[in-house]
Amino acid sequence: MRTVCVFCGSRPGRGLEYPEAARRLAASLARRDISVVYGGASVGVMGALADAALELGIEVTGVIPAQLMDRELSHKHLTALHIVESMHERKALMGSLSDGFIALPGGLGTLEEFFEVLTWNQLGIHAKPCGLLNIDGFYDSLTSFLDHTVCEEFVPEAHRSFMLVERDPDLLLEDMQRRHAKMQTVRNAV
Predict the structure, then answer these.
(1) What is the pTM assigned to this prediction?
(2) How far apart are CA 2 and CA 10, in angstroms?
C-alpha cells in the first residue's frame, strides 16, 4: 500500500483523543512511507491529520467539492488539492487515488464515505482493504450493529469480514497491508 484514504470529521469531536488519534495515525503512516488522501479541510480531525502528516514529510492530497471550500476551510499547504464539482466526484477520485481506506471518528459524512467504499468492495468494484480506527470504542456500537445484520442474515459473514477494526493504528495498518498483499496476489493469479 502506497496511499491510504482517511475519512474523518471536519469537527474535532468532544475530546482531545480524536485529533490525537489522527496524529498517531499520521505517525504510523509515516513509519511505513504511506501517503494520505483525505477530504481537504484544515479544521477538525481532518486538519489534525493533514497537519501531522505534512510535519512528518508525508504527501497529503486533499479532495474537496467547490461548495465546501469555504465551509470546511480548505487546507492551503497540501501536497495537492483537487477541487471537484460534487460529492460523487470527490468519492470517485479519492477511491481511484487510494490503495486502502480508513475511517477515524467523524459524523454522517465519514460514515457515508466509508460505507460506500465498503460497498464497492462487496460489489467487486475494488479489492482494497477498509478499516475502522476504533478510538476509545467510538465504533463499538456500529460494529455490534453490523454483527446484528449478519445474525439477521442481511449481510453475509464474508462481507462483514471486509471491514477491519482495530484500536491501534499500527495494528490496523498491519492488517490492511496483509489484506492488500493477499488481494494483489489473488488479482495477479487471475
Answers:
(1) 0.94
(2) 24
